[in-house]
Amino acid sequence: MEVANLIVDIGNTALKASWCDGITLGKTYRYQGERMLDYILSMTEKERPEILVLSSVRHFSPQNIHKLEEVCDRLLVVDESVLESYGLPLWMTPDRAASIVASRYLFKGRGCTVFDFGTTLTVDFLDPQGQFRGGNISPGCKTRFKSLNRYSKSLPLLDAPEEISSEGHDISSSIESGVISGIMFEIEGYILRNPENINVFTGGDAIYFAKRMKNSIFVVCNLVLMGLALIAVEYDKKD
Question: Which residue is catalytic, options 95, 116, 124, 205?
Fold first, then answer.
């Protein structure tokens, strides 16, 4: 089997990973648990990656980084030096950076509004030259449902329904309509503010909201992993 790269993205809720040949992704793996390091190491037992790219919002100790270095030819942790090399602000999380790298590649020469529907809803803006023009963060869909339940004394914990009414007529439908309609208004506001931009949806709830949009939307479910694959390719060229 040809040597391939292994790309790993650890977000607030889960780990996603894929073997890739250049920028071509293979099967996507998902793990939701506390033994993130062990899961990554298990993926390398039968095949040693040439480059292992790690994007993580969680801290990895120097000891754990060393363990990853031992199971690959080269380890690249997406850190501030990587962000700087792509002209991105140092405060940005690595998954957002990877989404921007992929959007620049996919929609070269076009401005983009990139929506990532995860634990948080992030919205990032790129101009036609691919320059980052800022971005916003708000609670994601599931986070909004959970917060209503957690911070109230009487509201139940619900999840996104398949269908919603424009107005609620009981507690459950009021919560469902309020959360989903609120996010829809938020999305539509950003789209109206940047009508010339390509609109890119990614993240766990991307398809759910894309189905409800009247505007033209590009859904790229593995945008972050694609960005990490591109980062690996560029890293290989420089090394």
Answer: 95
